[in-house]
Amino acid sequence: MSSKILVTGGLGFIGSHTVVALQEKGFEVVIIDNLSNSSIDVLEGIVKITQQRPAFEQIDLREKEAVKKFFQKYTDIEGVVHFAASKAVGESVENPLLYYENNLSTLVYLLQELQEKPSANFIFSSSCTVYGQADELPISENAPVKKAESPYGNTKQVGEEIIADTCRMASGLKAISLRYFNPIGAHPSAEIGELPIGTPQNLVPFITQTAIGKRQELSVFGNDYPTRDGTCIRDYIHVMDLAQAHVVALQRLVEGKEKSNFEVFNLGTGHGNTVLEVINTFEESTGTKLPYKIAGRREGDVIAAFADTEKANKILGWEANRSLADALESAWKWQKKVSEAEGN
């Protein structure tokens, strides 16, 4: 009998790709999503890819009683992959209490239910923002967690502390925190992908929306950083590789292979690309010219961040296999499908 897994935020960008990867591996999936930053149409995309319809519950995890009722209804949940959170750095600076409520109270309510179970497995969607501007590159899991640059980053740091504290006293709870670098791309079928509401906060959707004509031009924030071409360096990982890492991490817990009941892994490619390199790769791989301008630096941006992936490679037996060009081509294919559906 397959394990039943709850995926919170399962209709979001990374969540939907992980649902697909879990279903393809034989897990039975239940999705919770409040649709505040996603679309119910994503569910149909998942069904088209996997030929399976995951159970879906439209629940706001900030409602403690709703969370309690969910676990009363689904008593056989063996694991949770927790994506549901707000994630825009700028918005978190402007509205910190929204972020603390969305990202921390929801985590607490989930863990309160899981600690009551004789055993439960928990995968936490964390971020490389916990490292800030790291002292050494590439960034390993042993790098110090620095004072957060934003309320969003702080929710990831505090979230990890909450999980670690809970695991120390809840003997049946096992957890893995996955610290992502920069997820990009889309499923190769173009049935699901990144669907930002309003102005994109991330580079690649801004690139594809500019290339399709939805945006006039792309702003490159700063070209005077101490990097090879003056623009910021990030570790861009294909969302399909990232989704696969969640499956492998969950299997590690389900199979009892963990070394402690709270583990941390970085997820990235192990190398970084500058903003201009991403733009050039997009133009080369898609044959589409991209209008862009150099703008001033953006507050809170670190100069460079890319992962030391040795721990995930060795212990999880996972590595990122898809290239930057693969990711950008899939994002472009997805953007064209979205624009066609919108009648543009």
From TrEMBL:
<feature type="domain" description="NAD(P)-binding">
    <location>
        <begin position="6"/>
        <end position="328"/>
    </location>
</feature>
<comment type="pathway">
    <text>Carbohydrate metabolism; galactose metabolism.</text>
</comment>
<dbReference type="GO" id="GO:0003978">
    <property type="term" value="F:UDP-glucose 4-epimerase activity"/>
</dbReference>
<comment type="similarity">
    <text>Belongs to the NAD(P)-dependent epimerase/dehydratase family.</text>
</comment>
<keyword id="KW-0119">Carbohydrate metabolism</keyword>
<dbReference type="InterPro" id="IPR016040">
    <property type="entry name" value="NAD(P)-bd_dom"/>
</dbReference>
<comment type="subunit">
    <text>Homodimer.</text>
</comment>
<protein>
    <recommendedName>
        <fullName>UDP-glucose 4-epimerase</fullName>
        <ecNumber>5.1.3.2</ecNumber>
    </recommendedName>
</protein>
<keyword id="KW-0413">Isomerase</keyword>
<dbReference type="InterPro" id="IPR036291">
    <property type="entry name" value="NAD(P)-bd_dom_sf"/>
</dbReference>
<keyword id="KW-0520">NAD</keyword>
<dbReference type="InterPro" id="IPR005886">
    <property type="entry name" value="UDP_G4E"/>
</dbReference>
<dbReference type="Pfam" id="PF16363">
    <property type="entry name" value="GDP_Man_Dehyd"/>
</dbReference>
